[in-house]
């Protein structure tokens, strides 16, 4: 059974950093485009980053591009997201995502599998 499990969430002070991890199982990870979304209370799910299955070059949302680094390690079936200079507006549930029928994605409608999410709270 296909599964994505996020970890690394928690409470971070403003200006701090975090690294989120996503462990995939039950799917041919190297053949999937994988990435991250987040959803804040009362808001729609927001695309953050995607690493395609072909060249591994990340694509980022403009809102986080300057302070985010997404990476994947296919031999470990792992996906990562590092975010720096966090702000209270970054408080959200962060989701790992995988899409098998596209080389990259930025829309939630393109995603085949979702993790259950990990909560990140940015607060002093």
Give the key terms.
globular, 4-stranded antiparallel beta sheet, mainly beta, 124 residues, 7-stranded mixed beta sheet, 0% helix
Task: Describe the protein's topology.
Blueprint: E1 3-7, E2 10-12, E3 18-25, E4 33-39, E5 46-51, E6 58-60, E7 68-73, E8 78-83, E9 92-99, E10 113-114, E11 118-122
Parallel strand pairs: 2-11
Antiparallel strand pairs: 1-3, 3-8, 4-5, 4-9, 5-6, 7-8, 9-10, 9-11
How many strands, what sense, and barrel or not for the largest sheet? 7 strands, mixed
Structural class comes to mainly beta
Determine the mean pLDDT: 95
Note the overall shape: globular
Radius of gyration: 13 Å
Secondary-structure element series: EEEEEEEEEEE
Strand content: over 45%
Compute the separation of the termini in Å. 39 Å
Q: What are the segments in which pLDDT stays under 50 over at least 5 consecutive residues? A: none
Helix content: under 10%
Number of strands: 11
Number of helices: 0
């Amino acid at each position: 059974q296909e599964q994505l499990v996020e970890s690394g969430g928690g409470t971070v002070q403003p200006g701090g950093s975090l690294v989120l991890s996503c462990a995939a199982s039950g799917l041919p990870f190297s053949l999937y485009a994988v990435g991250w979304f987040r959803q804040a209370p009362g808001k729609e799910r927001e695309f953050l980053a995607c690493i395609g299955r072909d060249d591994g070059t990340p694509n980022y949302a403009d809102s986080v591009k300057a302070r985010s680094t997404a990476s994947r390690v296919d031999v470990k079936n792992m996906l990562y997201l590092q975010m720096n200079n966090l702000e209270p507006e970054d408080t959200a549930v962060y989701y790992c995502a995988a899409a098998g029928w596209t080389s990259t994605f930025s829309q939630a409608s393109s995603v085949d599998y979702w993790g259950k999410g990990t909560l990140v709270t940015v607060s002093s």
